[in-house]
Design brief:
The chain is α/β, with parallel strands linked by helices. The chain has 2 domains: 14-208 and 398-418, 3-Layer(aba) Sandwich (Rossmann fold), CATH 3.40.50; 219-395, Glycogen Phosphorylase B (Rossmann fold, 3-Layer(aba) Sandwich), CATH 3.40.50. It has helices spanning 35-49, 90-93, 97-111, 122-136, 148-155, 164-176, 185-195, 219-226, 246-261, 279-291, 308-314, 329-336, 349-352, 367-379, 381-395, 400-414; strands spanning 14-18, 53-59, 68-72, 75-80, 117-121, 140-143, 179-182, 202-204, 232-237, 266-271, 297-299, 317-320, 341-344, 359-362. The strands form 2 sheets. The chain has an 8-stranded mixed sheet, with helices on both faces. The chain has a 6-stranded parallel sheet with strand order 11-10-9-12-13-14, sandwiched between helices. Strand 12 (317-320), helix 12 (329-336) and strand 13 (341-344) form a beta-alpha-beta unit. Helix 8 (219-226) packs across helix 11 (308-314). It starts with 13 loop residues before the first strand and ends in an 18-residue tail after the last helix.
C-alpha cells in the first residue's frame, strides 16, 4: 500500500475526540472496553504524531484519576465530570450527555482554545458531538463502531438488545454528521441500509494494528510466563456478552471432548470480563461445568494491551465466534502475531479474515462447524503454520500510522482553509 503525502493541516489544528462512555486508557475486555478503546487511543496518537493537537474527552469514572492524562505527542485524555464519578450502565450515560457537552465547553473556555473539528465515537458520543457541533459551528466526523439495529437483529432471545432511544439516535446522527467513518464495505452497506446514511458521506477506512507490539513470538516462553501447561492452547479475547459468542465456543469444546479429544491437554484462555466482578463470567463458568469442559477453560479477566502479546504468542488458534463484529480488531492483532483465526462468517469478520488464507470462517452460531474447524487445524500443524505465516503479511498492511494518515486526509476535506490540501482531494485508500 502506498501512502499519500501527509495532509498539510496546520500545526494549530485542534480536534476534539469524544469517547463518552469508555476511556481509551482502560484495560481491555471489561464491560465497556474493547476494540473501540484501542481505536480511539491509537488513532489519536497517530494524529498527534502528524502534528494535530488532539484532546480525547471521556466521562470521568474515577475521582482519583487526574483530569488530564498525556496520551502521546500533542495528544491527551481529558476526564469530564458528568454524572456520578464511577462506572454506570451504558444506558444511564445518555441522561448525562448535556452535562458532558457543557463540561467539554467549560474545559475549552478555560484552556482558551478553539477546536476545528469534532470526531465522535459510538452513538452516545455522537449525540454529544451534535451538541458541540452546534455550539462551535465546526464539522462533525462520526464512527458508530456498532449499530443497534444490527445488534438487535442478531440478539435473538438473549435479551442483549438495544433500546429504541439508541436506534433513533443513530438515524439522527447519520443524517447530521458531515462524514461517517466505516471500517469496511460491509459496515458501509449496513450504515446505508439500517440508518439511511448517505453513501457519499461515508468514508471507508479500516482499523489498524500495532505491528511492533503484535508480532510473531515463540510460544514456549509466553506459555511459561502465563503459567499455561498444555499441548493445545486456544484463545478468546473480548467482552463476556452474548454477542461475542463465547457460549457457542464452550459448546464446541464439548463436541471436541466427545469426539476423541477427551484426554487432550487443551486449554482455552478467556481474556475478558470485569476485574473483581466474577458475576460477569458466572453463567459461562456454570455452562462450562455443565458441559464438562470446565477443566479446559481458564478465565483470565481483562488485560492491559501490553499483556496481550503473550496471550497471542501462547495460542495455537484465536477464536472469534461472534454474532456480530463491525471489523474485528482482535482478529487483526492475532494475525499480526502469526496466529490463525477461526471466526464467524458475520459482519466485518468476513473481510478482516480471509477464509483459507489467514484463517477459517464458519457459519455464525454453528457449534458443529466451529468444533470441526478447531479440530482440523489442531491436527494439521502444516496448515496451521501456513495460515499463521500468511496472516502476518496481511495484517501488516493495516498499521496505525496509515490509518491516522487517512483520517487526517478526511479531516482536510472538511477543513480546506486550515490545510494545504484542496477540498475533495482523494484520500489514501485501503483495499479490503
Amino acid at each position: 500500500m502506498t501512502l499519500a503525502a501527509p495532509p498539510r493541516l496546520g500545526a494549530a489544528t485542534r480536534v476534539a475526540v469524544l469517547s463518552v462512555h469508555t476511556c481509551p486508557l482502560a484495560a481491555l475486555g471489561g464491560k465497556e472496553t474493547g476494540g473501540m478503546n484501542v481505536y480511539v487511543r491509537e488513532v489519536s496518537r497517530a494524529l498527534g504524531r502528524l502534528g494535530l493537537a488532539v484532546d480525547v474527552f471521556t466521562r470521568s469514572q474515577d475521582p482519583g484519576i487526574p483530569e488530564v492524562v498525556p496520551l502521546g505527542p500533542r495528544a491527551r485524555v481529558v476526564h469530564v465530570p458528568a454524572g456520578p464519578a464511577r462506572p454506570i450502565a451504558r444506558a444511564a450515560v445518555a441522561a448525562h450527555l448535556p452535562e458532558f457537552a457543557s463540561g467539554v465547553e467549560a474545559f475549552r473556555a478555560r484552556e482558551g482554545v478553539r477546536y476545528d473539528l469534532v470526531h465522535s465515537h459510538y452513538w452516545l458520543s455522537g449525540l454529544a458531538g451534535l451538541d458541540l457541533r452546534r455550539r462551535w459551528d465546526v464539522p462533525l466526523v462520526h464512527m458508530f463502531h456498532t449499530l443497534g439495529a444490527i445488534k438487535n437483529a442478531v440478539a435473538g432471545d438473549s435479551g442483549d438488545t438495544e433500546p429504541a432511544e439508541r436506534l433513533a439516535a443513530e438515524v439522527r446522527i447519520a443524517a447530521a454528521a458531515d462524514r461517517i467513518v466505516a471500517s469496511n464495505l460491509v459496515e458501509r452497506a449496513g450504515l446505508v441500509w439500517h440508518v439511511q446514511a448517505d453513501p457519499a458521506r461515508v468514508a471507508v477506512i479500516p482499523c489498524g494494528v500495532d505491528v511492533e507490539l503484535f508480532r510473531p513470538r515463540p510460544a514456549a516462553p509466553a506459555r511459561a510466563r502465563l503459567g499455561v501447561d498444555a499441548e493445545h492452547v486456544l484463545l478468546f479475547v473480548g467482552r463476556l456478552t452474548p454477542i461475542k459468542g463465547l457460549e457457542t465456543l464452550l459448546r464446541a469444546l464439548a463436541v471436541l471432548r466427545s469426539d476423541g479429544l477427551a484426554s487432550a491437554r487443551l486449554r482455552l484462555l478467556v481474556v475478558g470480563g470485569t476485574k473483581g466482578e466474577p458475576g460477569d463470567s458466572a453463567d459461562l463458568r456454570r455452562l462450562a461445568r455443565d458441559l464438562g469442559v470446565a477443566s479446559w477453560v481458564d478465565f483470565r479477566g481483562p488485560q492491559p494491551q501490553d499483556a496481550l502479546p503473550d496471550y497471542y504468542a501462547a495460542a495455537d488458534l484465536c477464536l472469534m465466534p461472534s454474532r456480530y463484529e463491525s471489523f474485528g480488531m482482535v482478529a487483526l492483532e492475532a494475525m499480526a502475531s502469526g496466529v490463525p483465526v477461526i471466526a464467524s462468517r458475520a459482519g466485518g469478520l468476513t473481510v478482516t479474515v480471509q477464509d483459507g488464507v489467514t484463517g477459517r470462517l464458519v457459519p455464525e452460531g454453528d457449534v458443529a462447524a466451529l468444533a470441526l474447524a478447531v479440530k482440523g487445524l489442531l491436527a494439521d500443524d502444516a496448515s496451521r503454520q501456513a495460515l499463521g505465516a500468511r496472516s502476518v503479511g496481511w495484517a501488516r498492511r493495516f498499521t496505525w500510522p496509515a490509518v491516522g494518515r487517512s483520517i487526517a486526509e478526511l479531516y482536510a476535506e472538511l477543513l480546506p482553509a486550515a490545510s494545504g490540501v484542496a477540498a475533495g482531494a482523494s484520500r489514501c485508500q485501503f483495499q479490503l
